[in-house]
Amino acid sequence: MITLTINGESKQLDVTEDTPLLWALRDVLGMTGTKFGCGIAQCGACTVQVDGQAVRSCMLPVGAIGEGSKITTIEGIGATDAGARIQKAWLDLEVVQCGYCQSGQIMSASALLAATPQPDDKDIDAAMAGNICRCGTYVRIREAIKKAAGVA
Amino acid sequence: MNAAFSRRTLLKAGAAGTLLLGFHLPMARAAIGTFEPNAFIRIAGDGTVTLVMPQVEMGQGTYTSISQILAEELDADWSLVTVAHAPPSDKLYGNPFFGIQVTGNSNSIRAFWDPLRKAGATARALLVQAAAQQWKVDAASCRAAKGEVFHDASGRKLGYGALAAAAGTQTPPENPPLKAVKDFTLVGQPLKRLDTAGKVNGTVKYGIDALPPGVKFASVTLSPVQGGKVVKVDDSKAKAMPGVRQVVVLDDVVAVVGDHTWVAKQGLAALEIEWDDGPNAKISSADVWNDLRAASQNKGAVAKEEGDADKALGDGERLDAAYEMPFLAHATMEPMNCVVHVTADGCEVWIGTQVMSRVQAEVAKALNLPAEKVIVHQHLLGGGFGRRLEPDMAVISARIAQQVATPLKVTWSREEDIRHDVYRPVYRDVISASLKDGKINGWTYRVTGSAVLARWFPPAYQKDIDIDGVDSAADIPYGIPNLRVEFVRKEPGVVTTGFWRGVGPNNNVFAIESFIDELAHKAGKDPVDFRVAHLDKTPRLKAAVQLAAQKSGWGEKLPARTARGISAQVAFGSFISTVVEAEVDSSGEVQLRRIVSAVDTGIPVNPDTIIAQLQGGLIFGLTAALFGEITIKNGRVEQSNFHDYRMLRINEVPPIEVHLIPSEEHPGGTGETGATAGPPALGNALYAATGIRLRRLPIDRDILAGKKPA
Ligand code: FES
Ligand code: FES
Fold it and tell me: Locate the Aldehyde oxidase/xanthine dehydrogenase a/b hammerhead domain: which residues (chain B) (predicted)?
């Protein structure tokens, strides 16, 4: 049994230690907000936060996560200040198209905003370049991060 | 475990203006007192309006736009509108352009504009009649607004909910009056999308998120060469892995079933599979190109002929060129997947698809069931782009699930998704033209490539002409006195080809707009002026070209090796011109600096959605122009994931401006258009920056760096 703290709740998982967090979330816990896109840390669809850091859950074995670590997923990010502001800006500016990448985009963007309250274009590039959006919502993602940060 | 599922059969995301994932709603007989004037509208006794969507939502915003059209003529209260996915039914929800239930070709709004308006107006008329009858007044003395009927003379009003039961007993008028454009209050407004609230908090469900009780998870591999077969499988290691439940071996597919997708994937990797690669085993990209080039020498079926093109080519200064387009994968962000539960007497399918009724029919065929025994639960799509116009993922999943006792979720790895796509065809476009007094006198254009329509919708393939394959070429917007457009069908065989965002025009607009640019330079004319001089017969496009040029600062000086290029197109009923500004460094690397599009798409149903579609489509097309190519070696697709099938990322995307041109014309389509607009504008910018003309996509940086001849 592996114990993880996800969105403030303690969860027991009966999976092997090498199981990536992504599949533990989606298939075992039924938390499908976190998405599978590539499986090799190339697309960012699976991004979650571990202790506030954006990480790719498709390459993160559950056994590598410390028991004291706090995992936040898209289902819980709205409870954080940065997450709530990002979600609101996303809706205000109609960032979303198909939406499939957007869990990951929002997790990366809220980690950026929490760490860098006034991000400039370079900060945004650095934090968000790991998140592919096949629908091409990048122009609005940039605007929405600035809006959430109050720098737009 | 999987507790999420039981709560979500009917899930309401947020408050007013919501997405109601009412999978069963349209099938079930509506509750007593619900007004159901047609397949699209349900008004309940409490006044809530459920609009059933004949087209699918894959990010293009159509659920919102369709609702705006229905609600406009219905005079619904927008805050009480919810939307539901339609069930499979060609009869009720067939696309008027095809007669089957399909979402594609940027025609949701074009095709449904008239039927939806009529459906809304009919329902409104019935509600008004019901009120008039109750008040014993003339219906003409009543009016509807925001979900209520008013009789102003007596100051009475009734809500649609209160009128629902009585409205159902009225006789529908033959031709209910439609609103004048000036009276629109919903159409033309940038209303908030109805599908996005759940997409920012993880509650949205795509097909890949379906978790029916007891579901197991499968990882799948298809024959690496199309047409290959399984010879034998050693599954001893896989079966020994904890969590692996079953290995399913079909003649061309192998799957491992496990307690979760990861363990299934590990099990799959542990299999030793011997394949017979079949007849395509030796075919590589060079063979495909040799065959295509040879076929392009043949005369094709004539799709359009005006004047005497051959004679005119000899009269004036002649220019010849050939353009080539690679295979492309769709790479929807949501990889291919399908959940299937085969039971003793039927089957349930959970999927997000562009072809609901076709999925139902093909699964039924594969399982030897009558269609009505296959229940299809539609979901939102994590990208379509034409990939989900195919039912293959459902059929394969059903064949696997037939061997499994529980519901089964089959997920393609990204590698399987890229390697077993239905690819945008390779095309070769051979063009010749003559210039006389600075104007185009003769023009011949021959497209050689797959006839996707012949496979996908045979009735539309007539006289050896794929009307999609010559779309935007046969109806070229420029005034050319002598022209001929031909189509040569050449199927690559080694892979299956299909529709890809921008469909036929994304090939033709690239070739034509690049060649128009070549002609402008040959004539010594500015590319904008040259286009404008040939656009008298297409004034809406002329206006778009002029606006794009003006907004982009066309003609203003730029740094060395930085330049603007323009494209112009009439495609999917929209008139669009785009300027791309790009910079080329000495190694041939390209930076996009700015993009400006001017768009006349007729009545803009939701202007913000149109802008979003252009922004996204431009990035989609430019991604392909900069990076996109699927190559084949020994029958196998060589690319596999985003490291070798690259996507534009946020740090590579410049500011994009989209300018809408006001119009009261019939609405055009926009989902595809950006994808076709970007590549030629980029190619023309690269020529202006370097003097090098690239006639093949994706762009070759070695050629731009001068390391290789063009
Ligand atoms: S699925 Fe993890 S980065 Fe793509
Ligand atoms: S919104 Fe569709 S992939 Fe980003």
Answer: 201-279
Residue-by-residue DSSP string for B203-269:
---BGGG---TT-EEEEEEE-SSTT-EEEEEE-HHHHTSTTEEEEEE-SSEEEEEESSHHHHHHHHH
**Rounded to whole angstroms, how far apart are CA atoms B443 and B473?**
11
Q: What is the per-residue pLDDT for B158?
A: 98
CATH number assigned to the domain comprising residue B350: 3.30.365.10
Task: Using alpha carbons, select from B12, B19, B116 the residue that is nearest to residue B68.
Answer: B116
State the Cα angle at B706 between B704 and B710, rounded to 5°.
70
Tokens found for residue B342: 């085969």
Cα–Cα distance measured from residue A36 to residue A58, given in angstroms and rounded to the nearest whole number: 7
Q: For chain B, what is the domain count?
A: 3
Amino acid (one-letter) located at B200: V
Instruction: Point out the residue among B200, B331, B620 whose CB comes nearest to the CB of A87.
Output: B200
CB atoms within 10 A of CB B664: 10
Ligand 1 atom with minimal separation from the A43 CA:
4
Residue B577 and residue B672 in contact, taking contact as beta carbons nearer than 8 Å: no
Instruction: Residue A15: count other Cβ atoms within 10 Å of its Cβ.
Output: 23
Write out the H or E segment, with its range, that includes residue B156.
strand B156-159
Provide mean pLDDT across the span A64-93: 97
- Provide the domain limits for residue B647: 286-327+423-704
Task: Give the tokens for residue B707.
Answer: 């390391």
DSSP B303: E
Residue B203 pLDDT greater than 90, yes or no: yes
Of A112, A31, A104, A5, nearest to B642 (Cα)? A104
The label of the residue with tokens 């004048």 reads B180
Is the CB–ligand 1 distance for residue A36 below 6 Å? yes
For ligand 1, the distance from its centroid to the CA atom of residue B696, given in whole angstroms, is: 31
- pLDDT for B365 beyond 60: yes
- Residue B709 placed within a domain: no
